[in-house]
Amino acid sequence: MIKRRINVRGIIFRDGHVLAQQLTPDHHGRQRDYWCTPGGGLEETESLIDGLSREMVEETGITPTVGRLLFIQQFDDGENEQLEFFFNIENVNDYDHIDLTSTSHGLAEIKNVAFVDPKTVWLLPEFLQTIDIASYIERSRDVLIINNLRKTN
Asked: Domain coordinates of the chain in residue numbers?
């Protein structure tokens, strides 16, 4: 039976750059050289906004001002269906200086954090590399829904 994992992610966007992180090696010691936006899985009975706030504080030490929903992505990771909700984080300037030593999860999970150009780095999910993120934040586009579930017969 396939399980569904619900994830929440923050989009912190400024001047064409997204705050992203490179993660420490996985539990098998494999390097993870891609960049990804901060966030993670919801705990049981946790709301989307509460979960995102918790994850952002755990990973950055900074309490987010959570704005509107920008993107939803569904995909199959080979073991579980993943359902991700991406929200605009409005207090962008608060993320200029992140001290991973002051976080509960930062040093254990993150090896690097920076504002990156999504068009020039390996940023996951891949759709963030090709879309006009600013147009979603500026409300000129509806929520983008990405369905990458494998079709089964």
From this structure: 3-148
pLDDT tens, position by position, 80-135: 899 999 999 999 999 999 999 889 887 888 999 999 999 999 999 999 999 999 99
Cβ(116)–Cβ(123) below 8 Å = yes
**What dihedral angle (degrees, nearest 10) is formed by the CA atoms of 118, 98, 136, 16?**
-40
pTM: 0.92
Residue burial 104-139, b: 16+ Cβ < 10 Å; e: rest: eebeebbeebebbebeebebebebbbeeebeebbee
- Secondary-structure class of domain 3-148 per CATH: alpha beta
Specify the residue for token string 């994830």.
7
Q: Is the dihedral of CA 46, 49, 54, 56 positive or negative?
A: positive
Q: For residue 95, give the 3-state DSSP assignment.
A: helix
